[in-house]
């Protein structure tokens, strides 16, 4: 029972103004876009009626995405890029050691991997952006309007570099990301709202390329992720590969077969896997060497059981991290196309000792959950009480003496989170200090993923040990890291944007964005102006609503005047054509309302707490 | 509330070791429902940043108070006791002896059943320490409480190692 309605200061949208928002499931094998229309969330089909968009891009003159690209996979493998999600936020060395055979022409580089294609050297971020662009167009066409924002889902197990790469791809595609949402959480949203099920849920998500297990608690509209674990390099593709390798063995095909042949073998393997979901055996027909064979249920189980077993270990770990046992789990939700395999369902059901939920199409459930969350974040449901509290999937630490890791933020910490750490200099007159941030659970730096290296410079030269440098690590609600440092004696402050080692620099994104706009013959200046105008409207609307509610209560006369003057100035400028002037005016307004914003936030916190006290009083 | 409020003040709770976790969780959810950055998805950049800082502070406070060890350490720090003092680690000889014996026992475990029996013994020790801490804090016996927390930490590490072994045995 809600006794006190708490006003949401951030969501002061005008009534009846529906904002177009979408949820995007950017998958390894397939991608989808969904939206909420007339209160119902569903995925959007393309012009031919297909909901799934194969995550495949073919590069020639113009990028081709989806089924059109898939058709060219065999004839032009080097220019047809599939499963690019596996490359996001990864270095070339990582990609080679995952054991995944990717038949592309990689450019040798220490930085972000690039693939040589007919359209030039392309990064995984650019390729993902092309997929997103396609979904964006699909959504805007069927909704007949521009999207104000999207929620994009990522595997819960994605590290900082992979999340950053995903967000960069969205920026490149011209999408405003309202939130990066963990896939299992999205699935829980899709189910939770349908059934209003309070309790503890396990979300078992076996997709094309990744496996995630999450333990969530749903209580009074708040989804709390209690723990998450998984394997970012295990999915349906691995089942296919295993079957393909078995066929190669049976048929005596050499390991270094041509790209084209490997593709065909993977296709045969995938079909066999799907057949075995309903049939006792599958016929195998390898045309290019004229070999025929059969894979029966027993052989199939023998092949795939070890892979399924590999998913059970993370389930155990997640339960343990959540401080729970199997008996505490109320139900299990199945997500991802690979959970269609009856053997997978059987094994999961054995482990959790309950029948898993499969009611919502496992391919669509994530996109649907993302659409529901996007609708709420866009401000279309101001009274909705739903809140998603996610956690960090991996521990965050820094390198210390001897290549050891000191953990700063342990895995499964609820985000957003900020942790401060104090350093001092160890040499007289030392003015710089190197910090190496890593992510992972192991004790040695070399066994963890390097996120970023940076140097703190401009430390005042003093006797060793007499400076105090406080470094703050912050992980936001999207799971992205930022670091800031302050020398506490002199108060020198420096903000460090942590860009993952295999990420794109901001300037690069800006340049690519500009290139792609020019390519689309769009006018950069017009676009910049429109962006500033939209931002100005956003700021003005939010401020007006805030002033109406709290202006009299929280502002002194002179403060009110200062804010009004700045507001008037922005109102005058915003319909003009000078983007720079609008930008400066927004910044000015932002500066003079800083204190007001902080006061409002604290007031709403106090109000929430009072609501709580009233609640207790009524109950007792 | 302000950034300088202590964790207990944030949840309008008196500074006590004994705490109603259900009530604490409910306050926590109420606060996050108000302040989580998702509630500010359409707000200007500055407000979003502020919301993130506040939400992080509330998360930190909740995590600290939820767990008995961090809660105890936090109360001790509020009382001006230096809990980071690494020189002050003289432990009771009998206790160290017992720890060594427990570690030896753990090292010899090869069966899952043995491990489960071992785990429940450790959990019993942890429960006892929890009760002991309640009493010591109620009697404002801070020095003794500090000793109990350190013992608690020993058992926690042991418990963690035992769980790691579980992963290997399965």
Description of the molecule:
The complex is a heterodimer of chains A (620) and B (170). Helix content of chain A is 39%, strand content 24%. In chain A, the strands form seven sheets. In chain A, strands 1, 2, 3, 4, 11 and 12 form a six-stranded mixed beta sheet that branches. The longest helix of chain A has 31 residues. Chain A is globular, with a radius of gyration of 26 Å. Chain A starts with 20 loop residues before the first strand and ends with a helix. The N terminus and C terminus of chain A are likely disordered. Helix content of chain B is 72%, strand content 0%. Chain B has two domains: 60 residues, DnaJ domain (Helix Hairpins, Orthogonal Bundle); 77 residues, HscB, C-terminal domain (Monooxygenase, Up-down Bundle). The radius of gyration of chain B is 20 Å and the shape is globular. By secondary structure, chain B is mainly α. Chain B is built from seven helices and no strands. The chains are: A alpha+beta (620), B mainly alpha (170). Chains A and B meet through helix 8, strand 19, strand 22, helix 12 and helix 15 of A and helix 2 and helix 3 of B.
How is the topology of this model organized?
The complex is a heterodimer of chains A (620) and B (170).
Chain A: E1 21-26, E2 30-37, E3 40-43, E4 53-54, E5 56-58, E6 64-65, H1 67-71, E7 80-82, H2 92-97, E8 106-107, E9 114-117, E10 120-122, H3 124-143, E11 149-154, H4 160-172, E12 177-182, H5 183-195, E13 199-206, E14 211-219, E15 222-231, H6 236-251, H7 259-275, E16 281-286, E17 291-296, H8 297-321, E18 331-335, H9 342-352, H10 365-377, E19 387-389, E20 396-400, E21 404-409, E22 417-423, E23 433-439, E24 449-456, E25 469-475, E26 481-487, E27 492-496, H11 506-519, H12 524-554, H13 557-574, H14 579-592, H15 594-619
Chain B: H1 7-10, H2 21-35, H3 45-66, H4 68-78, H5 93-107, H6 112-138, H7 142-169
């Amino acid at each position: 029972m809600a006794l006190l309605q708490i006003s949401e200061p951030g969501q002061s949208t005008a009534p009846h103004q529906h904002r177009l928002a979408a949820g995007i499931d950017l998958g390894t094998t397939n991608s989808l876009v969904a939206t909420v229309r007339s209160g119902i969330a569903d995925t959007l089909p393309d012009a031919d009626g297909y909901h799934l968009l194969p995550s495949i891009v073919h590069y020639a003159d113009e990028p081709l995405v989806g089924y059109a690209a898939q058709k060219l996979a065999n004839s032009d493998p080097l220019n047809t890029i599939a499963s690019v999600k596996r490359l996001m936020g990864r270095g070339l060395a990582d990609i080679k050691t995952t054991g995944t055979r990717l038949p592309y022409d990689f450019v040798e580089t220490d930085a972000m991997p690039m693939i040589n294609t007919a359209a030039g050297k392309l990064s995984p971020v650019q390729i993902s952006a092309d997929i997103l662009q396609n979904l964006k167009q699909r959504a805007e066409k069927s909704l007949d309007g521009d999207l104000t924002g999207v929620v994009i889902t990522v595997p819960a197990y994605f590290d900082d570099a992979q999340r950053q790469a995903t967000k960069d791809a969205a920026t490149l595609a011209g999408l405003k990301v309202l939130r990066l949402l963990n896939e299992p959480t999205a699935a829980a949203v899709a189910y939770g709202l349908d059934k209003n099920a309070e309790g503890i849920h396990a979300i078992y998500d076996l997709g094309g390329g990744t496996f995630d297990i999450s333990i969530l608690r749903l209580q009074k509209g708040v989804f709390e992720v209690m723990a998450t674990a998984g394997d970012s390099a295990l999915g349906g593709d691995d089942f296919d590969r295993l079957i393909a390798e078995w066929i190669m063995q049976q048929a005596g095909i050499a390991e270094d077969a041509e790209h084209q042949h490997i593709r065909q073998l993977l296709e045969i393997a995938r079909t066999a896997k799907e057949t075995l979901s309903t049939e006792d055996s599958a016929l195998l027909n390898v045309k290019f060497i004229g070999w025929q064979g059969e894979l029966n249920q027993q052989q199939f189980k023998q092949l795939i059981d070890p892979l399924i077993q590999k998913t059970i270990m993370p389930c155990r770990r997640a339960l343990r991290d959540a401080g729970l046992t199997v008996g505490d789990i109320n139900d299990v939700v199945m997500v991802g196309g690979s959970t269609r395999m009856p053997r997978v369902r059987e094994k999961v059901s054995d482990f959790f000792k309950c029948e898993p939920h499969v009611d919502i199409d496992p391919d669509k459930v994530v996109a649907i959950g993302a659409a529901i969350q996007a609708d709420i974040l866009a401000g279309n449901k101001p009274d909705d009480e739903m809140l998603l509290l996610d956690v960090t999937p991996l521990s965050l630490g820094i390198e210390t003496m001897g290549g050891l890791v000191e953990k700063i933020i342990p895995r499964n910490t609820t985000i957003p989170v900020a942790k401060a750490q104090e350093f001092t200099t160890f040499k007289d007159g030392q003015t710089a200090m190197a910090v190496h941030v890593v992510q992972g659970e192991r004790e040695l730096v070399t066994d963890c993923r390097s996120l970023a290296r940076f140097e703190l410079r401009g430390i005042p030269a003093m006797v060793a040990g007499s400076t105090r440098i406080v470094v703050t690590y912050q992980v936001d609600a999207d799971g992205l890291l930022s670091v800031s440092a302050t020398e506490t004696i002199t108060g020198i402050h420096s903000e460090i944007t942590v860009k993952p080692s295999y990420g794109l620099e901001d300037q690069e994104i800006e340049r690519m964005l500009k290139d792609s706009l020019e390519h689309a013959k769009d006018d950069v200046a017009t676009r910049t102006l429109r962006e500033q105008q939209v931002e100005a409207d956003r700021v003005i609307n939010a401020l007006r609503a805030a002033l109406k509610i709290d202006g009299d209560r929280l502002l002194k006369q002179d403060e009110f005047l200062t804010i009004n003057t700045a507001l008037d100035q922005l109102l005058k400028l915003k319909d003009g054509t000078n983007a720079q002037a609008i930008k400066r005016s927004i910044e000015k307004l932002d500066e003079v309302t800083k204190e007001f914003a902080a006061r409002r936030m604290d007031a709403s916190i106090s109000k929430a707490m009072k609501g709580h006290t009233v609640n207790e009083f009524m109950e007792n | 509330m302000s950034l300088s409020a202590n964790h207990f003040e944030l949840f309008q709770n008196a500074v006590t070791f004994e705490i109603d976790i259900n009530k604490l969780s409910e306050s926590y959810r109420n606060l996050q429902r108000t302040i989580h950055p998702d509630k500010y998805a359409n707000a200007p950049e500055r407000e979003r940043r502020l919301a993130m800082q506040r939400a992080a502070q509330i998360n930190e406070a909740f995590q600290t108070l939820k767990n008995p060890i961090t809660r105890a350490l936090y109360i001790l720090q509020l009382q001006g006791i230096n809990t980071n003092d690494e020189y002050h680690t003289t432990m009771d000889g009998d206790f160290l002896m017992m720890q060594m014996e427990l570690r030896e026992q753990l090292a010899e475990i090869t069966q899952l059943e043995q491990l489960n029996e071992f785990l429940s013994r450790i959990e019993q020790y942890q429960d006892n320490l929890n009760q002991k801490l309640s009493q010591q804090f109620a009697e404002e016996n801070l020095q003794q409480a500090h000793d109990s927390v350190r013992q608690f930490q020993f058992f926690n590490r042991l418990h963690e190692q035992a769980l790691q072994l579980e992963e290997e045995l399965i």
